[in-house]
Amino acid sequence: MPQDAAELSALASALTEVQRRVSALAERAAASRDEELATELFAIERALTGASRRLDRLTSTRRRG
Question: Do residues 22 and 48 make contact, with C-beta atoms less than 8 angstroms apart?
Fold first, then answer.
């Protein structure tokens, strides 16, 4: 369904933006030596990266299929 593809694309864009913002926060936390916060934020960033890759695979599969 074209509507589903558009929704998935919008979600992928939003997820990329959240990932970018979390990454920036993690970098700032690391620079200020807040190791606990940086560690948690980098873990969240990795989880978001994985989710983003899965969503990208899903959208590319839907486009081909």
Answer: yes
